[in-house]
């Protein structure tokens, strides 16, 4: 998905670099929790762009978490209340085989198109520098899929990626090919999905990745640990973070309230931070 979210009344969603770092850290937590893959990003003043892959089909849930948590942190830091973002995010479903590189290039060139900078490497708050091998990648970002399109040798792939992005500065907009304001892909791909985006058929996102097909069942995971609280809590964290079970699935299995599982997951995360 190409995802954008804009500031309410066109106001700034990032007032300074601390806000931008706070957003990327929030995005990193969301990518981990919802098993997202973030291929590209660009943070402007009053909006942001992301290229997100959702193996578990949970874009809306993840976006509520991302914008909600960041809004709370932003409001607390700047002593304000109320909405930060303008309504619901906008997401365009992108066919990876045909338009993946194009949309990733479009995202990192936003600062150039906005005339904030002359070259993409001058804008610190996009994924261009990390993918191009010029800076260290933030932990929210995955660069392997993009670089893999340019070859197996990392240095050569990074150079070809830089050339590819720079060649797109004067290129016409790719959004003229978007169908139903929601789908970008070759003709067969777009036409096949028009029924989904117009609500005529049930919307089904990408199925779960192969890594979850062989995961152990919950009864196997919790076998012999239910009467040992410390061990049980560790298995709860593993079930959610390692094996991809939702917190609601675990709560229902253990006959606990959802908020109890959520609180345990948070406590386990805070404990691990203290240890490190």
- Average pLDDT value? 82
Q: For the terminal residues, how far apart are their CA atoms? A: 34 Å
Structural class: alpha+beta
Q: Which strands sit side by side, in order, in the main sheet? A: 2-3-1-4-5
Secondary-structure element series: EHEEHEHHHHHEHHHHH
Number of helices: 12
Q: What percent strand?
A: 5-15%
Number of strands: 5
Shape: globular
Instruction: Work out the helicity level.
Output: 40-55%
- In angstroms, what is the radius of gyration? 20 Å
Sheet of most strands: 5 strands, mixed
Low-pLDDT residue intervals, each spanning 5 or more residues: 178-211
Give the helix/strand layout.
Layout: E1 2-6, H1 17-34, E2 37-43, E3 47-53, H2 59-78, E4 90-94, H3 96-108, H4 110-113, H5 128-131, H6 144-148, H7 154-167, E5 183-184, H8 187-197, H9 218-221, H10 229-241, H11 247-254, H12 258-275
């Amino acid at each position: 998905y190409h995802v954008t979210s804009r500031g309410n009344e066109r106001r700034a969603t990032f007032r300074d670099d601390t806000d931008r770092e706070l957003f990327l850290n929030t995005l990193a937590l969301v990518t981990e929790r919802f098993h997202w893959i973030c291929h590209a990003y660009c943070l402007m003043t009053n909006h942001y762009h992301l290229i997100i892959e959702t193996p578990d089909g949970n874009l809306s849930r993840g976006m509520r978490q991302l914008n909600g948590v960041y809004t709370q942190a932003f409001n607390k830091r700047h002593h304000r209340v109320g909405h930060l973002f303008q309504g619901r995010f906008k997401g365009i479903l992108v066919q990876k085989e045909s338009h993946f590189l194009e949309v990733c290039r479009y995202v990192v060139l936003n600062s150039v198109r906005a005339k904030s900078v002359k070259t993409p490497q001058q804008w610190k708050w996009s994924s261009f520098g990390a993918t191009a091998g010029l800076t260290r990648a933030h932990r929210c970002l995955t660069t392997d899929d993009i670089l893999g399109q340019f070859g197996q040798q990392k240095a050569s792939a990074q150079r070809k990626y830089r050339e590819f992005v720079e060649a797109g500065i004067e290129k016409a907009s790719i959004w003229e090919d978007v169908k139903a304001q929601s789908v970008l892909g070759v003709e067969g791909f777009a036409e096949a999905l028009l029924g989904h985006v117009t609500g005529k058929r049930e919307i089904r996102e990408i199925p779960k990745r192969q890594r979850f097909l062989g995961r152990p069942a919950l009864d196997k995971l919790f076998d012999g640990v239910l009467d040992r609280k410390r061990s049980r809590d560790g298995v709860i964290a593993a079930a959610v973070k390692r094996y991809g079970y939702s917190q609601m699935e675990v709560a229902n299995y253990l006959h606990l309230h959802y908020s109890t599982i959520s609180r345990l997951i948070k406590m386990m995360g805070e404990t691990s931070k203290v240890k490190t």
